[in-house]
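Researcher: Structure prediction, please.
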Amino acid sequence: MTPSDTRVPARRPSWTPALLLETANVASGVGNAVVMLTIPWLVLDVTGSSSAAGAVAAAAAVPVLVAAPATGWLIDRVGHRRVSVWSDVASAASVAAFPLVAAAVDIGLAAIFALTVVGATFDPAGQSARRAFLPEVARASGIPLERLNGIHEGCFAAGWTLGPVLGAALIAGVGPIASFWVPAALFLVAMLTVAAIRVGGTPTGDADGRTSDDAGSGAASVDDDRGWRAVVAGIGDLRRDRSLRIVTLAVIALAGLYLPLEAVVLPTHFEAMDRPGGLGVVLAALSAGVVVGSFSFGWLRNRLRRATIARIALGGVACSLWPLALLPPVAVLVVAGVVLGLSWGPFSPLMNSLVQDRVPTHRQGRVYGVQLALFGAAPPAAMLVVGAAVDHLGVRTTGLVLAAATTVVVVTILRSNGLDDLDRPEYRRSR
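Model: Predicted structure follows.
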């Protein structure tokens, strides 16, 4: 018998790891969306103040700024699997605390505020950790990584689309307090499915913060950066790679311009006409477009260069915002919403692919963390400005200003040379 006869046969690819990861992804997305709808409703139910509901929503964005970069370092240090599991446990506990506190005392604004801030602290960790898991799951499942990136972001977008529908049904059926038990259960589902993932027959990313890529590529250990040094290191990785930096800043800028139009301008317009159903149809069309756009990324990558996809997406966002800003009839708004969603959908999987190609595996967590912190900060800050602009300039004028600013940003990016390098990764796993 030769030595080769005694080798263990190669493990065949199985879709099981991908199914488990995406089950966790959808469960987490739905759970977070239910919570995001239920908390403002609960604040209004308790206080009757829309300004209080807005203040609580804004406060939820603050922990993301601090927690996201810190959890990025934690992912690189102790492993994405552990961080994902424990963040979902913490999220489940923080959500279940709402009905538990309400059963013990009369829950007030201070308690809601505190529980919201605590819960928001754990959200970035799970999302970033699941993204860091993608390369290993793609290999184990036999799925091209860029295709899995699109599937992953599409599943998350689908969860955020289904969540408000489920949340509204729960509030109507059992009330806002009891509704929190469902997202708590969904976070536990996410925890269990990630815990069940096996790659090569063993859990991964647990031993010392290194993944299987680190061992194969010669990365001997995780960097010793801690705390804000890890944040600086993550920013440094973004700063050194021009294309990754340009795409990241572009998405942050566009999110800060388009999300306020979705969350402030359109609701104000439809509320003035007393047509909530029209708003629901437009937002559903936009969400459906995001889901399809995300899922289509893998299909597009088989046919187009990354730079081409980025240019088409940027142009689609700029063009679709103008009809939305002009506030035409609902049918036109629906079409524009679909185009905007289809254009926006590929951005997240595109950024995932760039990080995976250009940042060493043992530093990807901190980059995801910095990106998530920036994305969590820009839209809420912009919404405060846009809300004031609507009061002073009016709905249509504010919408047109947002559309014009988006066009300026898109044209500036398209005229830069950064997009030309999207298909020339600077980091290879063979290093």
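Model: Residues 109-141 form the longest helix (33 residues).
Researcher: Thanks, that helps.
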